[in-house]
Design a protein that fits this description.
Radius of gyration: 15 Å
Strand content: 35-45%
Number of strands: 9
Helix content: 10-25%
Number of helices: 3
Largest sheet: 9 strands, mixed
Bound molecules: cobalt (II) ion
Shape: globular
């Protein structure tokens, strides 16, 4: 059911410092920061030949990545995102198998302007898993 790896997301305390690591140390192409108030994060994308890396910096006090950064003060891998052809069919199939969909279970618009859902890490090998409509 899942298709391509769309991105790996890394949460960081300091986006400018993380951008410097990827752009200057690793020599990657990095986009301008994109504030996403509805998700409580500011995002930067690193475009690699075969996938993307998403750097996430918390925005506001209630950012969904604040707790993660408390536990991982140096930053760390926050989630992986797989593409699916039909996000509602994928959701229904996963729910029927007992997987937990986070939030109200309805897709939200993600950083790429496409519908996304998040799946509970306890059901997916300890990894927060995002599905994005391809
Ligand atoms: Co993501």
């Amino acid at each position: 059911m899942i298709g391509r790896l769309n991105h790996v997301a890394i949460a960081v305390q300091d986006l400018a410092a993380a951008v410097a690591v990827y752009r200057d140390t690793l020599g990657a192409e990095v986009t301008e920061p994109l504030p996403q108030p509805e998700h409580g994060v500011t995002v930067v994308f690193i475009t690699l030949p075969n996938t993307k890396i998403e750097l996430l910096e918390p925005m506001g006090d209630n950012s969904p990545i604040a707790k993660f950064l408390e536990k991982n003060p140096n930053g760390g891998i926050h989630h992986v995102c797989y593409e699916v052809d039909d996000i509602l069919a994928a959701r229904d199939r996963l729910k029927a198998q007992g997987a937990r969909v986070l939030g109200d279970g309805e897709p939200k618009t993600g950083a790429h302007g496409k519908p996304v859902l998040f799946l509970h890490p306890k059901d997916f090998c300890g990894t927060l898993t995002e599905l994005e409509q391809a």
